[in-house]
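2024-03-11 09:14:02 INFO receiving multi-entity request
2024-03-11 09:14:02 INFO entity count = two
2024-03-11 09:14:03 INFO echoing inputs for audit
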Amino acid sequence: MAWIVKNSATMQIERREDPYLDDELKKMLETEVIPRFPSRQAATLPVLHAVQHKHSWIPYQALEEAAEFLETSASQLLDTASFYDDFWLNPKGRYLIMMCQSVSCELLGQMDLLESIKAKLQIEPGQTTEDGKFTLMTVGCLGSCDTAPCALVNETLHENLTTENFGQILDGLE
Amino acid sequence: MALDHPVLTKRIPTPPWGDPRDRKLIDIDMYFDTGGYEGLKKAMGMKPNAVVELVKEAELRGRGGAGFPAGMKWSFLPPVDGDRRYLAVNADESEPGTFKDRLLLDYDPHLLLEGIAICMHACQLDTSYIYIRGEYHQQAKTLKYAVNEAYENKIFGNESLLGQINGRMPQCYVHRGAGAYICGEETGLLESLEGKRGWARIKPPFPAVAGAFGRPTIINNVETLAMVGPILELGVNWFKSMGVPRPDGIPSTVPASYGPKLFGVSGHINRPGIYEEELGIKMSHLIEEFCGGMRDGAKFKSAIVGGISTGVIGPDDYDAQLDFDVGAKYNCLGLGTAGVIVMDEHTDMVAVARNIAQFFSHESCGQCTPCREGTHWMYQLLSRIERGQGYAKDIDLLHEVAGSMGALPSGQGSTICGLADGANWAIRTIVDKFRNEFETRVKKKPQILQSVESVNDG
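2024-03-11 09:21:47 INFO inference complete, emitting structure
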């Protein structure tokens, strides 16, 4: 799991005028999500998902706004958000490649596949290409072991990958 | 032994009964047309307690990994007090090698929803949350669609046929996780549901007494709940006609291995996939009859029987009988999720151990020191051995570190949850059963001693 390292004493939060959690989003969450739970804090994961879905990542300002909305503290929300791999507290590329590295995938050639993608994109796992198009990650298991090796690109699962077909898939993205 | 007809895969074409290419989403109309929600109808005609007793009598064991009898779990709930009670459905399928629940969520979500409705009636639970892992984007969409259909057809919601439960109309929500393996642990799941980091809770109190939001909560796996509808519909005797009964002389308090089970097979085989068979089927049968045999005709070497946490079985266990007793018989942790990873003779077991250690090292939530530090050090040690830079003593050290973490006695009860037990068993079984592979990879003595000796020899 993720441990965050930040200099709380001197860190400046970048701010902008427009709220990340705008009225429209708040209204949707208030009517559709909040009533599901006996406490507002319980809506943390759905709220963070909604913010990330809209903005691609979760800036600190958005965390503060979400904390106010959920009637909890920003530090509590940071505690939760930083725990989960799916929440991005830093900007990521337009396409997030999550390559499965489970035993099943490694048995069927995931290592070579990863090397070829690293060479193709010129980045290591955890990094984003200079043009901001791709972010590469390796993940535990995507639950598609029968079609190993596999990878998620944003919300789409790609199965039975080879260096050739995966290269073509990435080339085909805008 | 062989299953006469598919149960969980009744509507999902699966060999030998159907062709996976014919699979499509079963919507609620198709589900009704093929006998769907008959189990719920039957349950609605029974007193809640009678349903719990029936599931208890069927000895349905949890399909999520631990194999705890579901009916027993349900009967641990305190008496109704008029306040909220919850059902948390564990669809956080993250155990490497496991992909069985995905099949049900992809194609037959109403089988799960029927089980949920029956459970809510039986246990008098007014709200259910289906906690689905964040990576299952498509499955979450399918599930939301199916839940909407169920609301429209008065399974859940303000016009639900279930009527008021605890003074409320029953609700069912899909709740997406965010990429944390630990949230598949039942109390980690509850913490996550409450909007916190997914740290496992110390038990007792057990969730049945104080679970989500401090209220009585039942947590069941997707496949377990999917099995409840057919049991209600077809009866206890039908369910117990499948699987492995208790041997003579074993007291009835020891649960047996009844019923059908989904087996997800992957790795070095010709046709990986999900297959449904009775519990107790031989692994060799699964590989040869369903999976088209070993890939490239290679020889079998080892297999992980139920997700990486369960550890491995050795080259002599090709005929291993896959039921809930597999752990005791073949010295591994247990049946787990029945996600079988088959490995052939060319597999490097040191690399397999390193892969597994890396997973647990990343997924340890950091709450308990033995697990947080131990998984990390095992990964370091195994990486070193894999690179050929390890020493003979590293093998014993690995064993010692593994044996020092876990909630079970084998892990000295040093952690809160079972994540470390998985790491412990996986690494120990690989080292024990393939020790020669590790020994050939390590240097005999630390480098400095070797050089001193060579000076002396010279």
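2024-03-11 09:21:48 INFO post-check: The mean pLDDT of chain B is 95.
2024-03-11 09:21:48 INFO post-check: Chain B has three domains: 20-235, 257-344, 349-454.
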